[in-house]
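Give me the fold.
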Amino acid sequence: MKSFFIVWCSLLIHYHKIAFRNLWKYKNQTLISTAGLAVGFTCFTLSVSWIRYEMTYDGFHKNAERMYYINISDERSVNGISNYTSKNLASYLKATFPEIRHTATIGKTKPGMTIEYDDVETPADFISVDSSFFSMFDIKIIEGNRDFFIFNSKNIAITKEKSLKLFGNENPLGKIITSPQLQGKYTICAIVTGISKHSNYTFDFMLNETYNGHTIIELIKDIDIDALKNKLYEHTIQEGNSVIQKMTIAPLTAMHYKDPNIPREVKFQHIVIFAISGLLLILCTLFNYLILFISRLKLRERELALRRVYGSSIKLLFALLLVEFGLVVLSAFLLSAFLIYIVFPFFQTLSNAQMELYSIYFEYFIYIIGVIFASVLIFLIIFRQRQLNVAIRKRNNRFFRRTLAITQIIISIGFIFCTAIILKQMYHLQNNDLGFAYENRGSISTGPNDIDVFHNQIRQIPEITETVIGATPLLPLQFRKKQNISDWEEKPSFAENVHINEAYISEQYTAFYEFELLDGEMLSDKDDEKYVLINESAAKAFGWHKPVGKSFDKYIIKGVVKDIYNFAPTVSAEPFYYVHSEHKNGTILFKYNEGTWRICKDKIGQILKKEYPEVSNSMIFRIISNTEEEYGKLLKSENILLKILTFVSLVCVVISIFGFVSMVLLTCEERRKEIAIRKVNGATIKDILDIFFKEYFLLLLVGAVMAFSTGYYIMKSWLEQYTRQTIINAWIYVLILLSLAFVIILCVGKKVYETSSENPAEVLKKE
């Protein structure tokens, strides 16, 4: 037994030496394969971990699989639905539907909330709940009373964790805190257990001070979900002057990645694309490695044959080849682990995921084991006994190599094509006419009582060239006021009511944002109140081809302006009518000289700080916004997607180029004798180059046709989510194809020319 162990150890050491020599002999190809696999592993691991994190929000609750949130029809919402419901809906649903076991209404405050204690401002999260919340969620009162459940009592509960951060070991009960955003002082009356950071409802403080919020329901066991969904959708509730109808439910665990109202740096579908990109990069690298490996088998045919002659079995030959493959995967595994460590801080910032590095490594290890198992399985299938015997007997394996080469070309061209379309779409979104001018413009939100004072100071800043007082900025997008119009001129008998947004403008306001007039005239300050402007979407909604002079409700159309796109690029333009009004809110719009935004922001901040010395700097700068930056936020996810896909595309292209170069080099080694014989029989270098170019251009053409067909279908579907879409021009296909053809000419031409220039007599003598 001992001798057997020693023999196997010696054999493994020998195999590792042979594998290392072979990898070092082709060190460039080995380096590319290792780096490609490492980058692919890193992208795939982080993306899949991110997806899992997004899809398990609130999954830790004891009955999470039976918890749902309510959506209702809401014409005022951009998406036509809303999960922001009346506080009374929860109790009504529990009393009306026996399938519902518990209900709760949760009011979640916006990000950026703070509290002040002892003149120190601290970030804090608030939720507004009533006693029903405790029957559904595992929250307990540690100390104190339940007075924070009393509506508008100004009593508040604090979590144990937040209490320790604010007060240390001191008892927080009875202490008074101030919330600048909620504009009130609150007395801490209870200490409660917190909730996991991996939840839609994380909080530091709990109170009862809202009429509306998310309605969460918990269903009883083993009910017919589809039947309940139908009952809710068909049920109508009359609540005062409003009607609640078309209710739908969605799993609570899906809220975080499905709810469009939750602010997201990166869209969930883009995270999925990242994961797919990482997987494709792994496949592209593996195919590249297999191409090279098969080519090397041909070059190692004498070595393999001699090993068979001296008694080596097929299993031992498999072991030899697997050791070489294992060293590449192990190197990629270690490099990828290092890359994950390097990019983890950036990943945490981008994803906002509260994950520890060790949990990422644990998932990474599982994924790597899966990839290794699948790779070894494919390896065994490809290099089964028959295939290995074929290689040793000098049979041709070019067909298999070409198949892998075409697959690699498809993945590479697919990445390049998709990245090009995304880049073109981003350029289209950023440079296409939005219906208004947003460059070099900003806004300040102050109190309406102080607006005249601020306006006089701000317009004296040298870098500011124009101001508009008391108008609503187009970005950031404010709340929309939607009207239900039932009567308009030339209304067809079958037409339904039109839901149209109302906005207030002035002559100065339309000039500031440079509204584009399509028909009729702009409103002026002298116009009667009955005259309004409408946008293109409103004209279509009313069914008017020539809307100027026509009327709806109490208004007459004076002009038609271009649709304004001041929202996410995936949202369609809605009907708007613009009413002239001198009403002033607490906002100042301003235009500044190009390149002076930072200077303007600092000077405005100094003015506000002088007037409000008690307000923190972070709060001061939150009320100053830049229109260009706000529009950039709407495209942030697309920009991140573009950067990652560009990087992955470059890696794929580099891998493919090196794969081509290596494949050509090895093919030339295999066919040196054939090339020499052709030259002896009168073939010129040009003739030999033509043979190789035809072969590789055919591979490129076949791969391009398949990649372009698949890529067009994918990108056409992706573009359909945008209301403003770029065109997939023919020149994109031609440019990509010509660029890759040029690369092939350089790579293939150089290697083949060097081989073709050799003396055929010397080659034949060596062979």
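The chain has three domains: 1-53+266-395, 84-258, 441-634.
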